[in-house]
Amino acid sequence: MCIAIAISLLMILICAMATYGAYKQHAAWIIPFFCYQIFDFALNALVAVTVLVYPNSIQEYIRQLPPDFPYKDDIMSVNPTCLVLIILLFISIILTFKGYLISCVWNCYRYINGRNSSDVLVYVTSNDTTV
């Protein structure tokens, strides 16, 4: 219980840092949140790989659920191959959404970094029309 509270407080702190960094335009404050998102994406990708490599583990996991778990019998009656495909589809949708959110945070970081940099692009143009 104590570990769950500590992790929750750490996540609140990381999210607050990202919000503060975006608001005050401090790109370095966004990096911990970005790293968390990458870590979360990697863990979810490992879950997808586990489902692919050990498809029978899903049935075993469902059997270990408490008897009063809603729709447990209905899930157990589904064809195991179909169940694996449904779970992989669900995980791939989640991974796609997480990838999109990672892209949003990275673009925010790049935008803030670009705004705060002193490099200015200068385009030289002339009205000279002679060839």
From TrEMBL:
- Where does this chain mainly localize? membrane
Which keywords appear in this protein's UniProt record, sorted alphabetically? Cell membrane, Cell projection, Endosome, Lysosome, Membrane, Signal, Transmembrane, Transmembrane helix, Transport, Ubl conjugation
Q: Where is the signal peptide?
A: 1-18
Membrane topology type: Multi-pass membrane protein
Subcellular localization is given as: Cell membrane; Cell projection; Endomembrane system; Endosome, Multivesicular body lumen
Q: Which GO terms describe its cellular component?
A: cell projection; lysosomal membrane; multivesicular body membrane; plasma membrane
Q: Organism's domain of life?
A: Eukaryota
> Where does the sequence pass through the membrane?
28-54, 75-97
Q: How does it assemble?
A: Homooligomer; upon reaching the lysosomes. Interacts with MCOLN1. Interacts with NEDD4; may play a role in the lysosomal sorting of LAPTM4B; enhances HGS association with NEDD4; mediates inhibition of EGFR degradation. Interacts with PIP5K1C; promotes SNX5 association with LAPTM4B; kinase activity of PIP5K1C is required; interaction is regulated by phosphatidylinositol 4,5-bisphosphate generated by PIP5K1C. Interacts with HGS; promotes HGS ubiquitination. Interacts with SNX5.
User: Would you identify the family this protein belongs to, as annotated?
Assistant: Belongs to the LAPTM4/LAPTM5 transporter family.
Q: What does this protein do?
A: Required for optimal lysosomal function. Blocks EGF-stimulated EGFR intraluminal sorting and degradation. Conversely by binding with the phosphatidylinositol 4,5-bisphosphate, regulates its PIP5K1C interaction, inhibits HGS ubiquitination and relieves LAPTM4B inhibition of EGFR degradation. Recruits SLC3A2 and SLC7A5 (the Leu transporter) to the lysosome, promoting entry of leucine and other essential amino acid (EAA) into the lysosome, stimulating activation of proton-transporting vacuolar (V)-ATPase protein pump (V-ATPase) and hence mTORC1 activation.
Protein name from the UniProt record? Lysosomal-associated transmembrane protein 4B
> Origin organism of this chain?
Balaenoptera physalus (Fin whale)
